[in-house]
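Lab channel / #folding
Pinned by the channel admin:
"Please post every new chain as: sequence first, then the structure tokens as a reply. Keep commentary short and put observations after the output so the thread stays searchable."

First post following the new format, from NK:
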Amino acid sequence: MMGRPLYKYALAVADMTLVYLSFAAAVFLYHALKGLRPDLWATPLLRQFAFFAAYSAMSFFIFHYHNLYNSRVFTTTLRQMGLIAKSVLALAAGIAVLSFALKNSIVPASRLVIFFFIVISTASVALWRVFVVRPAYLRLKWLMNGRNKVLVIGSDSANNLCGSLPSSSVFKPCGFISIPPGAEGRPAPAELFDRVRGSVERLRPSALLVAYDGQSYEALFDMIEACRKLSLKVYVYSKLLNVIPEYVVVERYGDFTLVDISPEARTSLSEMMKSLLDRILSLASIIILSPLFIMLAAAVKFTSRGPVLYKQTRIGKRGRPFTFYKFRSMYAGSDRDGWRISSTIDSIRSGESAGGSTKVVNRAMVTPVGRFMRKTSLDELPQLFNVLRGEMSLVGPRPPLPYEWEHYSSWHRRRLTSTPGCTGLWQVTARSKVGFNDTVLLDLYYLYNRSLWMDMKILFQTFAVVAFAKGGE
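Reply from TO:
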């Protein structure tokens, strides 16, 4: 993504300061109610303030986790206040846990102090953000509206819709490139890029808005890719992407939902760091989880015939095949299940789920141990060896089977322009509740917006999904 604006760092510092001051106010209020005069230089009190000065830094990570540094959130009111309350409760829960673990030697033990902290911190941060930060940010964007020109690319009816953008939006259309919604008359990708580049050089917009109300995913992604080749912010308005706002925070202007798919500022160094982190974390996980590997292997071996590990050929980055590992969760011969293969192909062709689930599973072929492993996703653990070998990443799109790859449309294949992963955005958000096309759209959104922070967030969400066995098949 583009470089992070400095005002977000300033906002983070302000948040941490308010959290710390809220703690100080809670301590003083507690002493006042008890009729005590706090000795600021007393060792226990100094320890508490020193601890909380360090602990306040946690607010940055918790607020970040709840998207509170995302302009799509801090320009809202009720939604932002709800997320602030959740973040403060998480901070308070951390204080309570540490208080118990450290036997109150540093952390305040009084539940009254923690209660005061929750109330004061939630109120102060919410008032600051809603009544100071939000109006100041919107006013600044309004003043900059003249420089925030947007070039619209799409069909004529979509252009008319963009003309009705509310005046409170930060976009000011400066030009329009008409693209037919159907296949007839639609320019080839190279011609489309030349048209967009020519208009950008002539009109000098600060952002591009793809507004498409047709039914062709191919046409939509041709327009998206043409725009992403230029170093400008790119937003998309299309009902074809309706699944994304259901599971991801996006920008809203009145009835308009805009998906940000701006070109990422990714370097070879960041790719190398991601690969190195994948290998370090996968090796550490294999070592730490080795007792669990042994127990699962024994359970598979002694409850059904066949090998412990199930090996498959899968399709990796840019169509390259590799050997994929899982704990066997089905009876031997299940990979030749004709019903499963035909149902999967039908799901890909239609773009919908088969039987109300993303995963096509013949439940009669699943072993008793396999049901548990699939529900908790523990059958996927051997893929850590694929990560260690560089064939997969911890986070990324799922690798398809060869017959699935053969039936992919060209826009489906865009999901494997990157290294496939053990877990991904749709696995931790939608799970098995969406159709095939929607899983591809969520994968592509991840590829367009991926970052180290997004990877870490998906990994944390994966732990929660596994722990609570949410949506496994």
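NK: Residues 6-143 form one domain.
TO: also worth noting, The mean pLDDT is 84.
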